Amino acid sequence: MSEQGFVVTPWEVTGVVDYERLIRDFGTQPISDKLGRRLEKVLGSASYLIRRRIFFSHRDLDLILDDYDHGRGFFLYTGRGPSGPMHIGHILSFYFTKWLQDKFQVNVYIQITDDEKFLEEKRNLSYQDTQNWAKENILDIIAAGFDPDRTFILQDTEFLGHAYPLVLKVARRINFSVVRAVFGFTNETNVGMLFYPSIQIIPSFLEKKRCLIPSAIDQDPYWRIQRDVAAPLGYQKAAAIHSKFLPPLTGFQDKMSSSKPETAIFLSDDDNTVRNKVYRYAFSGGQATIEEHRKLGGNPDIDVPFQWLYMFFEPGDSPIERIRADYRSGRMLTGELKDILIERITTFLHEHRARREKAADLVETFKREGALARTIWEMDFRDR
Ligand code: TRP
Q1: Which of 249, 280, 306 is a domain's end point?
Q2: Is position 384 within any domain?
Q3: Same domain, residue pair 27 and 69
Q4: Hey, which of 140, 225, 239, 265 has its CA 20 to 30 A from 333?
Q5: Which residues line ligand 1 (CB under 6 A)?
Q6: CATH code, domain with 241
Q7: Ligand 1 nearest atom to the CA of residue 90, by list position
Q8: What is the 79 CA–ligand 1 centroid distance (Å)?
């Protein structure tokens, strides 16, 4: 663990994350009140994620809004490493990206990094494992409701061959010393991983417009490198908007993990599993007995069920503030708060899974391999 007591890299999140500190360390910008209001105005009902600063940090978001206002447009890029089943924490960014697409009516590129997850040795996944998880995860991503006419799913092992000339142009501009410093690579890191950063940058170059990348803050190191190589290659620096991590059910340490099922709610968890996990594992800010709770009240700041409602499941400002006040005063008990969350999660999962049922028929449409290959070949690869 580092001196500040937490670590955030694309491969590791441990400790209790200090988000202000991350903004300083990563050199990003907090979303100011003025910029926040500008985006909230467009987002309407989806604006709570900005107003509450669940998406809290950015790079060049103001330029994206300028591009939009002046009719230059922009496009969205996000992604998923298919290393296992997806949980609520993973899907938040995809719903947010879908809401951005709905409001701005722009193209979305979704990178599925099956290569990355195969190369990450500590995961110990076979190549076939990564292919199976890619298939599963893509269904969940489609279920978020992206517009089939404006959304492209790029699975690295399938589409990158077409982009190889561009990959090379990016790779030639990234030095070992940079990726070692940015990602903490060592002499034991396999060379696939050293090369991989070039690949995660590629989708940000798929249009000549500015690219906005919604992701959790841990992915920002890639965007820093993207912004160094973009201009010399004739592309625009990517803009980014960064989210916090939804805390693990068990408390604020580390992040949700697929290998510790009690820390997360999976998109495939049935109603009973959801109820049991929330009752048994959700870290509570309530008091030990009902009498004490009535007298002293609960602490919503450290209460995971409250935080999950605040960060995703209760978009309404007056309902969430009512819950906060009732819980703090002791009028609302821990069990009652948990019941609200359970109801929200199960409703959300039922709706998500109903859309997932229909997703299989859409995979070919979203992948559009032939069309994408042509787009990439027809792009202006200037010889620099
Ligand atoms: N590296 C990401 C992961 O491990 C996947 C990813 C690729 C991604 N491109 C992205 C995530 C763009 C957010 C935005 O999950």
Answers
A1: 249
A2: no
A3: yes
A4: 265
A5: 10, 77-81, 111, 113, 116, 200, 213, 215, 219
A6: 3.40.50.620
A7: 15
A8: 4
Whose Cα sits closest to atom 8 in ligand 1? 79
pLDDT for position 5 = 87
Q: Which residue of 109, 215, 223 sits with most ligand 1 atoms within 8 Å of its CB, as the best mutation to test the pocket?
A: 215
| Overall domain count for the chain | 2
Is residue 215 in a domain?
yes
Q: What CA–CA distances, in Å, run from 380 to 74, 165, 206, 207?
A: 18, 11, 10, 10
Task: Tell me what pLDDT residue 159 has.
Answer: 87
- Shortest-distance Cα residue to atom 1 of ligand 1: 81
Q: What is the pLDDT of residue 370?
A: 59
Residue 115 within any structural domain of the chain:
yes
Point out the residues of the chain with pLDDT beneath 70. Answer: 1-2, 369-371, 373-384
Shared domain check, 222 and 83: yes
pLDDT, position 382 = 45
296 Cα–ligand 1 center, Å? 43
Domain membership of residue 141 as a residue range: 7-249
Do residues 57 and 188 share a domain?
yes
